[in-house]
Design brief:
By secondary structure, this protein is α/β, with parallel strands linked by helices. Among the domains are: 112 residues, Ribonuclease Inhibitor (Leucine-rich repeat, LRR (right-handed beta-alpha superhelix), Alpha-Beta Horseshoe), CATH 3.80.10; 130 residues, Gcn5-related N-acetyltransferase (GNAT) (Aminopeptidase), CATH 3.40.630. The chain has seven helices and 23 strands. The chain has a 14-stranded parallel beta sheet, with no helix packed on it. Strands 19-20-21-22-23 form a five-stranded mixed beta sheet, sandwiched between helices.
Amino acid sequence: MYDYEWDRLKTWLDQYGAIESSVTTPEEITRLDLSGHSLKEIPESFGILVNLLALNLSHNRLSTLPESLKNLSHLSNLDMRRNRFEKLPNLLLNTSLRSLNVSGNALADISILGQCKELRVLDVSSNSLKEVGAVFERDNELRTLNLSSNFLKDIGALLCVLGNLQRLNVSANFISELPESVSNLLSLEEIEMSDNRLEKIDEAFFELDVENVNLTANNLTSLHLHGLDSLEVLTLDENVLEELTMSDDFAPYLRELSCESCGLKEFILPPSTALENLCYASNEISSVPDALQRYTKLVHLDIEGNNIVDLPDTLANLLHLNTLYIGGNPLNEHAKKVIAILDPEICDLNMKSGITIENAKEEDLKEMAELLGILFAIESDFEIDFDKQYAGLKQLYYNKGSDLLVARHENKVVGMLTMQRLISSAEGSFIGQLEDLVVKEEYRVMGVGSRLVNKMRALAYEYGYKRIQLAADINNDNALKFYTRRGLKRTHLSIYHFHL
């Protein structure tokens, strides 16, 4: 009976390319990827895979799992995102799950997860949850919790039991208050609360050791920033801040601050001199203070879409500034001279209006393949072949671990950049491999390349990649200078390849 079950299961797995031909026994299988096959059911014999550690069932049509999965006592990593589950199977209680992804289903109740004592990483985003406060006990092992895109209004009780949590995402809910119980998040490093209805933040929040905070698109109108001694990144975009103040003790190591579209009339200077990225775009700011020069490590400055007429001469002292977005301001001639002294190539002042950075569409791939011809004409290691380039881009487009960005002007693709997800043994996690950065010649020195790189960096950060990397032609001086000015550091490695 056992051999019969294995033969049938092996045949079933083979048809989806899930196992190597060298596999002869079910005990050899420790990891399976069955994602993206529109599966409606899993064979009951699946339970004979008793050594299975990691199982990817994402992007299918599953609503149940076979009861035999309770035999998978070693299963620690389960991905069931983008299926049709309305209820979590009770058999999950028999596993040793440490990581579970059930995002993109139709779950309204996750109470059984309170009994999964070893669970450390949990993603239940994009479901139908209205309440999770009573799910977990104080002795849980959760380190990463994603509850974004649900229907949560109150997370006060939940915060009481998350003392070990390091990363919390509750974006795109209906939360109006960050309550006093936030003080229980003693291990918290990152919190994502964008797209809520947040009006009030308890003082206990400012005592946390959190490093990254995103409060974009809430209802904050008044905010006094203080404490947060470990904070490095703060995003406050799209809050109508009638009042924003900062104490001298606020975030002494802050590296990034973004207050885009907040209705600010004043350029507020954070106390931290470690600042590298500063964004006050789309506000009502009319002047830039001389004291901006104290940010000697500033790399990116975005003040576009304000009412700025003049710039201080001291701006030219920012020697590390690689990107300056300042379009959409009524700049006078003196301001333009300051930019010229600073370095006109880092500024978007001459950018044509109407250029957007977007995710590529399938109909863009042919234009992108033509752009690669421009790139490969410069890089001697590659051959220009439209059919090959188009085929490669098409595979990238459908690869779930890839991102393709385009710069678009007047419905034409004028620039592009791609990124592939890789696993780094050195980092012990995912990294992003950047490739194919090219901009049409008539659109260069307008900040298009910078915007493509910045957008892709933001995506890599959102995905939790440990680093991004790229390869560049050693003879392409312009490209090497471009990458260096945008914060990428040259390594001691050389690239070798063997053409098959």
